[in-house]
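Researcher: Next sequence.
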Amino acid sequence: MNETYFAPYAWLPGGLARDVRMTVSNGRFDAVDAGRSAQSGDRTLGGLTLPGFANTHSHAFHRALRGRTHDNGGTFWTWRERMYAVAAVLDPDSYFALARATYAEMALAGVTSVGEFHYLHHAAGGASYADPNAMGAALAQAAAEAGIRITLLDTCYLVGGLGPDGPLPLGVQQQRFADRDAAAWATRLAAFETAPHVQIGAAIHSVRSVPRDQLPTVVAAARGTPLHVHVSEQPAENDQCRQAYGVTPTGLLAETGALGPFTTAVHATHLSSADIAEIGGSGTFTSICPSTERDLADGIGPARALKDAGSPITLGSDQHAVIDLLEEARALEMDERLASLRRGRFGIDELVAALTADGQRSLGWADAGRIEVGARADLTTVRLGTPRTAGSEPRQAILAATASDVDTVVVDGRVVVDAGRHLLGDVGRLLAAAIAPLWAE
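Model: Next structure:
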């Protein structure tokens, strides 16, 4: 059965269009026509309709840290200790509850696909669950119930860090994250049972957590699928890599074949000019996560330089200090203004591409992120009459709107958010119920 939608404003591959009718069948667009009138039976989408957003970098369990880690000073490294404390208490059931509520919050913000950088694999002490992929399966089921797609970026994590002489032993808190070696990780990854809403990808946690001699095994296992990696989030990571291996993290990844058009470099905050050229020249994507990078005092990365060098820019909410992809897109431009003392560093069309088509491609959903015939029927409609967006030109609304202005979200032809309400009901209540037990004394 066909469904038809009418949007007074919609963002098509050629840019903003007026009066667009869309016909959807079996989760894909059958027809997209601009300059039409609404017909009887059309579902009218009031406001500005965009392709569904891609959140290219998520750690779902970090959502439990929001409002608990922001006022105690310190650094990324001291924040990490609080993160370890949450990781220590999760099991498949509690992780499912937290992830389901977190992914529902993403849907409310217009997200239709999430890249879950998943390294919380095992039980306390590092013992395997009866199903070695139980935690990943919980994430996949959580995404299904929240109504969004997931690219499960199963993360290789083997050692506790880097010292001057090479890899360091795992800390007690890190044992849950680690497999014996890259071959054991690849074996576990190959056993994961997929589903239509799931892409199985891979991740290298960082050059701090996967030794150089193990990287080629990860690259080989990930070939042809999305491969994501934290890169140069902190200056200390660069210093450690140079001391241990004599190259930057980007240089090490290039040497071991980890860069390329299936790969996404996450953060890429502290790069040399040679690093920028290597990432851009290889066609590697970059996932910028501005709200996290400012919350953790990571710094402002060279996003414009990376884009100019050939790296498609995408956006993530990472530790979920906020889940608002419109804010991440706006911050991409605003942080560039702060760093460069110039406005208009990223055009609105570039911000939309980062939110949608480029983000979806980096997660392996190349048939999503565009409102066109044959593409997945993903839609995110932003209201234009709210206190934030009233008076905005529709084209500039993404620089004014927030997640609170998202009205309707359609994923693969299914309405997941209607009039600002998620199909699961009160998402705040779900989040509170999932998070409170994790902090119980």
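Model: The domain at 53-362 is CATH 3.20.20.140 (TIM Barrel). DSSP finds 14 helices and 19 strands in the chain.
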